[in-house]
Amino acid sequence: MQFELINVDKIYQASEENKIFGAKNINLKISEGDFMALVGPSGSGKTTILNLIAGLILPSQGSLKHGGSDITSFSLEERTKHRLDYMGFIFQDYQLLPILTAFENIEFPLQLKGFTKKEIDERVHWALKQVGLENMGHRFPKQLSGGQQQRVSIARAIAGRPQLILADEPTANLDSKTAQEIIELFKKLNQEFKLTFIFSTHDQRLIDQVKTVMYVKDGQISETRTHHA
Ligand SMILES: Nc1ncnc2c1ncn2[C@@H]1O[C@H](COP(=O)(O)OP(=O)(O)OP(=O)(O)O)[C@@H](O)[C@H]1O
Ligand SMILES: [Mg+2]
Fold first, then answer.
1. Strand 3-13 and strand 19-30: pairing?
2. Which is the closest atom of ligand 1 to the Cα of 202?
3. What's the CA gap between 10 and 1, in Å, rounded?
4. Is the pLDDT of residue 228 over 80?
5. Under 8 Å between Cβ of 60 and 51
6. Half-sphere exposure for 198 (CA within 13 Å, toward CB)
7. Is this structure's pTM higher than 0.85?
8. Residue 161: which domain range?
9. DSSP-based three-state secondary structure for 215
10. Is residue 11 part of a domain?
11. Helix pair angle (102-112, 146-158), 10° resolution
12. Atom 1 of ligand 1 has which residue's CA nearest to it?
């Protein structure tokens, strides 16, 4: 199933007369197995576009679709459920809960999704294995390096086998070598399991590895380039 933004504008109303176009006439289609990045300067609209795809914010104009469903017609509760069912999220600052172990952080969204205890155990072990942290499930975030914390957040994002993983500047806080390892991990997950990724990034190493680059400028996608590997 495709995720689609069609002629989408997002206007932030800073005050009565001060309107900011966070996104302008965005047309974007994400298909299964895609590996794509939104690239552009600070304030250009990358996070706004990711939040629109996720249904975290609604378009001021235009439509937001997933398969046959029109997400803009969903209630807040339906959008939350839809996000939990179909998407995984990765952030620059990992966003792990400090009072939970790595295992429990990964388990948490699966509990919300209503999987059985056995399914949850299997999925968490599978996800920890994929990110190379089989033996670290008992550790708390503060007992892990930044790269390891990002691996836990990747495990959390993939454990439910979502249709789409949204990653907002996932390598921005990592040193060069660790960033490279994390990029290799994304590539492996995309190739081995056909997991679909959309990134926002400034990281040239990541830009070099994605199949599709969308350049964002002043809220608009100014250019799209596709590599044929
Ligand atoms: N909640 C908001 N209210 C008002 N304006 C906003 C809001 N969120 C974002 N903006 C504005 O919308 C524009 C796009 O912001 P956005 O966060 O999408 O940029 P970005 O490309 O992700 O930047 P960065 O690389 O710094 O993360 C900016 O001008 C920003 O100030
Ligand atoms: Mg941003």
1. antiparallel
2. 25
3. 24
4. no
5. no
6. 25
7. yes
8. 33-58+77-226
9. strand
10. no
11. 20
12. 12
Sign of the alpha-carbon dihedral angle for 145, 148, 152, 154: positive
CA distance readout (Å), 108 to 76, 114, 150? 21, 10, 16
Overall domain count for the chain: 1
CATH label of the domain that carries residue 186: 3.40.50.300
Neighbours of ion ligand 2 (CB under 5 A): 46-47
Quote the percentage of the chain above a pLDDT of 70: 99
Residue 166 lies in a domain: yes
Residues 51-77 have pLDDT tens digits of 999 999 999 999 999 998 999 999 999
Continuous segment of H or E residues that includes residue 128? helix 117-130
- Establish if 52 belongs to a structural domain: yes
Residue 17: inside a domain = no
pLDDT reading at 139 higher than 60: yes
Helix, strand or coil, per DSSP, at residue 70? strand
- Residue whose tokens read 């378009």: 59
Residue nearest to atom 5 of ligand 1 (CA): 12
Pocket of ligand 1 (CB under 6 A): 12, 14, 20, 22, 40, 42-48
